[in-house]
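Mods, move this if it's the wrong board.
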Amino acid sequence: MRMLFHFWLHPFSRKVRMALTEKNLSFDLTIEKTWERRTEFLAMNPAGDLPLLVEKNGTILSNSQVICEYLDEVYPEINLIGHDPVQRAETRRLVNWFDRKFNKEVTENLVDEKLMKAILNLGEPHGPSVRAGRANIHYHLDYIGFLIERRQWLAGDTFSLADISAAAQLSAVDYVGDVPWEQHHVAHQWYEKIKARTGYDFLVEERVPDFNPAVNHIQTVS
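Not the wrong board. Structure tokens:
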């Protein structure tokens, strides 16, 4: 069976999980606590990071974008990157936006500070970082709204890896209760469309042991 090594709420693991789901590819999940530096895991991925995908034939793939590009090449029936060079470029531009810019400006400041520090017993969240994350997220939600007012989905008129990358980040931040959906209705409508897709229940149903989600994570904002 295909195996995805992941960690709860890890946005890049969620990105690959969503891509596998969208392509109707079966897989099993294994939680990997990367800080434990397991010898067996490091033998498969010397970088020691997540996600890691092991294909049925034993092929080992790491890095979320590498994995997703591989999946789109090997399983092309459902295309997630684009059918022409311009569309592929726009999808990759937005994937990079959310994988790098959103993750650095928002997710690391909120999820890492409020959740990962607690999991690893690294002390209290850093107040300035949390405040920065809460301020920065408005800019990103505004940008999502700007795009959706002009397109059906983020990169164009078809669902793509850009939507997946954005939702993977936002769903993690939503768990800790820091997505101000009530102030960004267009972005929220787009996100609700994603949650309604088949197989994406885990975006709100996944639980981190000993850390309950924020109340608004499981509620719908009208």
